[in-house]
Amino acid sequence: MEHDLLLQGCCEMARQLLRCGAEIPRAEDTVRRLLAAYGLEGEVFAIPNCVWVSAPGPSGRSHTVMRRVPPSSVDIEGIERFNDLSRRLCADPPEDPADILRLCRETAAGLRRYPAALCLLGYFVGAFFFGLFFSGGWAEAAAAGLSGLACGVCLTLLDRAGANPFLATVASAFVLGASACGLGALGAPISLEITVAGSIMVLVPGLVFTNFMSDLLTGDLVAGLATFARAVLSAGAIALGAGTAMALFQGLTPPPSAAPVAYAPLLYCLFAFTACLGFCVPYNAQGVGMLLCGLGGALGWAVYLAAMAAADNPFAASVLAAAAVSAWSERMARVRRCPAASYLIVGMFPLVPGLTIYQAMDFGLRGNTDQFLERFFRTMGIAGCLALGLLLVSAALSLLRRRKRP
Question: Which pTM value belongs to this model?
């Protein structure tokens, strides 16, 4: 058996999983299982942009392979397909390790993807219903949808051009902010806060804001700090781009002309469901997975509203809501035999503190340091609570699985 080819295949499997947005522990565990299928006990270490795999050869010398992971967008279909491939390879490892590398490349080339026009429609739908979700009226929802669409067009064009991810986020956030402020300056009867908060969800990096907390809580300091740096850079890019646009339009945009709308709790859950369905398209969730992602988002918000009605504590409510989404995702993952991350990535969107991210950015631009720090720490606190909710379910399921083993 050619050990170098085996390690290259294992490294490519982990690289593709990370590239599609899978969690670091999943990528590392996949490599360990593949090596174990060939009777090897190796070592694997991964961070968001790099993976190392090492295993002893026949002579006793350690062979090591390293691959960089290029930045890319989340691909839920890719996570599911590569997870399925790893299961098949572990159950029936090919005699020639070179087949692992070949199958990884064939799987990557054969992934189903939505056309660009449908992805842009997904951005519009997601931003539109998040505009309603943040208690906006139909005018705010339409403005948020149009701003999200403009942002999606910019993201798509810059991604095809191979632009630097940070600069692409800055430019897209600027387009988003300019679109929202421009609509207000033209006389649209909208609340800028609700419009920007709804459309900015297009750029909020989903689980990144909770993954770094989860990594830190589980003791994976290197991955946690790397993901934290990514979260801070993403938030900084959003604030820089949207903040610049808002500063340019300062004085031209009238004050809010519409008060927040109070909807029935069931409608908020419906808005969360539909917004998640919209974001399923650019995140490439296929088939029935879209429906399950939307249901997870609606379930999480229903639990959040119930917890707030009982105790009026947003931090405790965030823990319970995240635990509910995590439990739903784990259950659906076992039913469909695919990773729970497929449902968590989109299902957690309604719980991500998009409105407080906007408010922190707005207070910072206005020089209101006290309010900025309060919103910033509130955002970090909610992110920590979401991570805690995810971790509690994960730890409980891990203990149950260990007890069931003979």
Answer: 0.86
